[in-house]
Write a structure and sequence with these properties.
54% helix; single chain; binds guanosine-5'-diphosphate; 518 residues; binds magnesium ion; alpha/beta
Length: 518
Amino acid sequence: MTSPEQGRLAGPLSMSVANLCHRLQSQVSARTAAGFAEVLRRLGAPLQVAVAGRIKSGKSTLVNALIGRRVAPTDIGECTRLVTRFQYGTVDRVEIVFTDGRKQVLPFASDGMIPAELGVDITTVSHIEAYLTNAVLQGMTVIDTPGLGSLDAASVSRTEQLLGAAKHRKEEDDEGSDELDDTSRNAVAGAEAVLYVVTQGVRADDQQALAAFTAATASREAGPVNAIAVLNKADTIAPESVEGADGDVWKAATILSEKQASTLKPRVADVLPVIGLIAESAESGGFTSADAEALRQLADLDDDILQTMLISADIFTSWECDVPSGTRLRLLEKLDLFGISHAVEAIRKEPELTAGALRRSLLDASGLEAVRHRLSIVFAARADGIKAAAALASVTALAHSSGDPAERQRVHDAIEVLLAKPEAHQLRLLEALTLVASGAVDMPEDLSEEVLRVGSNADIGAQLGKPGAPRPELAAHALERAGWWRSFASFGATPAQSRVAHVVHRAYFLIWQQVREA
Ligand SMILES: Nc1nc2c(ncn2[C@@H]2O[C@H](COP(=O)(O)OP(=O)(O)O)[C@@H](O)[C@H]2O)c(=O)[nH]1
Ligand SMILES: [Mg+2]
């Protein structure tokens, strides 16, 4: 079976929760035990990352870039109105999942993509499951969403449901049934983290969508801190419209990203500029040596002529030139004007550039690596806490709905024991992070930044803001900050700040223990 279950747990806390489920499984009712089995399956699955944002913001394009394969249909077609989950499998396979639970295998289109049209009544479809052998998916399940912008009400509601914003049915409703309740089912489909795609100009409904997601995931204690954002289509920004950009597109994109970060703050940690289209072409095999050859021909053109052609897509394709206009259209589709101009410049600077090196240069220009890096840092640092918190919430809900007080007590006691363990402290840290990042607890800027840093990095050096520093220095710094936060908790802090400060103090203390011991 091509199940996503790889048995790899995200970290020590997930391990403890898994042990708890295993231990309790024989001591609870069959129905609760079935629920625990589902919790265990989910705990072992990769982090579920939803790519969300307005329609046409370039979500599917970015999904293809991240997976490294052009598999999600972009632009129009039925499939772009559905949620598609891309997860790891040992064989490439696509399934339509219907709202009544039925599944139907969907053959790939001849170009290796998910067909844009399904050939079934789309109103009966819940979502699409795509199993792919791509290594990236062993680390995370990527969920493509239709978008929360305009479009039709049905796709909006499907997206909201996926993001957990839809109302959950009460568990009491299906008491006695051996079926999984909606909470568990929702938890399985629900996203654990979000990659939020915006384009130039954040709109009110972007804010709303992010707010809906953070509200829906707040119960998982990870809250707003499990979202990162990208400013996509950076290539389409007119640099002359951005003050301080000096006519440079990437500089303009960086300035706009920073502006949007302050608008979206504290819901997302930061906004990274990216050119999804170029990233997709460079990463998914879309960029070929024939394309490189055509670009080489363009690079040979007189510069005045080329600059004129690059003024607009229309001029670029209709201008009289040796490169066939069909070829030019193809280049436009893959790279757009900015990518073409970037490639031509790279070739002119280094005429011997191979097609592979040109692809690499385009990838560098797309900003995708920075997005990948950020994804791996933020989500890797939090996956253990995020997954464990979600699992604990499900375990609690399952015990709660069992109707057996003794069983409920047993589960409750086991959770209490677990929460007292040092590895459980990250749940409190995530919660503190949420309080600070959401503005629920007001902190001076430097202190909020410190809290975010401690809670957003997996590497101790990075947590302490001293990457690569020698251990004794890290230990001394951790101890110093532990002391500082303890005294801040006792003197000079508001009661709410004080609760956060205690958690941060303990986080530093645990870090100190770790560096000192190793
Ligand atoms: N110029 C440019 N176009 C892009 C970029 N990313 C996506 N697009 C185009 O925007 C359109 C919508 O993209 P799509 O991924 O389908 O958007 P979605 O509706 O959010 O999934 C497609 O024509 C893409 O080729 C980008 O970074 N730059
Ligand atoms: Mg799409």
